[in-house]
TrEMBL record:
Keywords: Calmodulin-binding, FAD, Flavoprotein, FMN, Heme, Iron, Metal-binding, NADP, Oxidoreductase. Residues 1-108 form the FAD-binding FR-type domain. Belongs to the NOS family. This is nitric-oxide synthase (NADPH). InterPro entries: CysJ-like_FAD-binding, FAD-bd_FR_type, Flavoprot_Pyr_Nucl_cyt_Rdtase, FNR_nucleotide-bd, NADPH_Cyt_P450_Rdtase_alpha, NOS, OxRdtase_FAD/NAD-bd, Riboflavin_synthase-like_b-brl.
Length: 191
């Protein structure tokens, strides 16, 4: 009856439709009506995190499995729809997908041009393909390459410093000139 209270409840609880129906059992929805009112799942977009040269015929994705609790961390556990589904796949499973191009988001045409890459968390995905491409160019002796500096941020080095070994290898082999890391929730260090 009070729209403001409803909005506060909704944003604090973040309930799923199932949780709403469980909390208010007096709401009796015919299944046909319920099915016609459910929204279609929207596509999820992930950046490709592999270069075609070193990984021909493959596409790698970098996906963080989304889980969270509502109600200031005290509520029920919620799971991301697509990330959870992807995490449960088995080798050989089929994934319906399409590629959406981003023609302006790529390495410079001149390989000697310097690059600064800034990627927090899974946002490092497309940059992984960039340093893989540079490693491939180095192995092929493609000529002089410009400097490539990576700035990577995540919460904690031991928790989610993804691709650490690959970053170190790319730096040792000269594909990455420098790697700067920032950790926002490193244990024993102020945020």
């Amino acid at each position: 009856q009070d729209a403001r209270l409803y909005e506060e409840w909704k944003w604090f609880r973040c309930p799923t439709l199932l949780e709403v129906l469980e909390e208010f059992p007096s709401v009796q929805l015919p299944p046909v009506l319920l099915l016609t009112q459910l929204p279609l799942l929207q596509p999820r977009y992930y950046s490709i995190s592999s270069a075609p040269g070193p990984s021909p015929g493959q596409i790698h994705l970098t996906v963080a499995v989304v889980t969270y609790r509502s109600e200031n961390g005290q509520g029920p556990l919620h799971f991301g729809v697509c990330s959870t589904w992807l995490a449960r796949l088995q080798p050989g499973d089929t994934v319906p997908a399409f590629i959406r191009g981003a023609p302006s988001f790529r390495l410079p045409a001149a390989p000697e041009a310097p690059c600064i890459l800034v990627g927090p968390g899974t946002g490092v995905a497309p940059f992984r393909s960039f340093w893989q491409h540079r490693l491939h160019q180095l192995r092929d002796g493609s000529g002089p390459l410009g400097s490539m500096v990576l700035v990577f941020g995540c919460r904690a080095a031991t928790l989610d410093h993804i691709y650490r070994e690959e970053m170190e290898e790319a730096q040792e082999q000269g594909a990455l000139s420098q790697v700067f890391t920032a950790f926002s929730r490193q244990p024993g260090t102020p945020k």
